[in-house]
Design goal:
Aspartate Aminotransferase, domain 1, seven-stranded mixed beta sheet, 14% strand, 12 helices, binds pyridoxal-5'-phosphate, three-stranded antiparallel beta sheet, 2 domains, globular, Aspartate Aminotransferase, domain 2
Length: 369
Amino acid sequence: MIPFVDLKAQYLSIKDEIDTAVLKVLESTQFVLGSEVKALEQEFAAYCNAEFGIAVNTGTSALHLALLAAGVGSGDEVITVPFTFVATAAAICYTGATPVFVDIDPVTYTIDVNKIESAITERTKAILPVHLYGQPADMEPIMEIARRHGLTVVEDAAQAHGAAYKGKRVGSIGDIGCFSFYPGKNLGAYGEGGMIVTNNPEYTHTMQMLRDWGQEKRYHHVLKGYNYRMDGIQGAILRVKLRYIEEWTEARRTHAAQYNYLLAKSGLNTPVALAHNRHVYHVYAVRTTQREWLQQQLNAQGIQTGIHYPIPVHLQPAYADLGYQPGDFPHSELAAREVLSLPMYAELSSAQVNQVAQTLQNILQGVAA
Ligand SMILES: *Cc1c(COP(=O)(O)O)cnc(C)c1O
């Protein structure tokens, strides 16, 4: 069996370091924030080429606080894509603002920059591009449009730790960048976690207060805040794992190149990474009109796959009140019907990648394996 992800394999590869780091936190009793979390903030910000890091409890909280720091609130609009994980849109709604969707580019699955300007109104406060699957959105035109209209850019980099656009690490290209450390992400905690990075000291101060009950100092609540603090144990674990992220990312990129090569003549559409992007392959998604059938056949032969994501946010029942209809975002809707994510994690062996590709070819050629 080849699983879609294998968190155990990664843990076993660094078990001694992780166990030592966790025990150290237990001994220190710095269970919430504390010195490990503070060190992680500095190290992760440096990794993103950003000045400040603010550790939080989830990627969703990171997005929520970034939008609040940018001044987004009730009555405002934030431009984003419907082809994303639901958290992107949910975080906008938490602030009281309204998500305004723009379709994706069908090749990269990131926001179609040619459709942003016509979505801007007097209420627009921010643009929230998503670096979906680990491929950076087209940030140069996004920043240019944002500057021209006085908008803040918040990057949803939850799937894109270490990805780069024209040589710049994601998270530090826009005004604020948001990351998730959900266990299955490229850099995953052993529980929940998230991080915000920025070069802006005022945003930093605001977000540091908001994640900890809006306190300027203990029991002095200057803002209506939240309990969005990171656990000390997660900070210590993530510091260990951050030392391996480049190695793991290169392994993902090697697996993707091998899949691309082996599937070139399969008839499937393989992912397209633009030349100026460093794609970090959180997800390796192929495209096929026979998705359900192919997924079943692979499953029957012991190969697990995923679908990211089967229903775009504008067609989710929870967001029906936004008033969108089927057909509003054709590229997002077609991608949602056709994408299929193949097994992808650093610890996959080249033999396993080969087996996945071979099984796919056999199925597509109607040959029983
Ligand atoms: C995972 C994810 C989030 C949310 O992160 P959590 O840590 O699960 O809250 C937000 N946006 C995208 C694109 C994601 O993939």
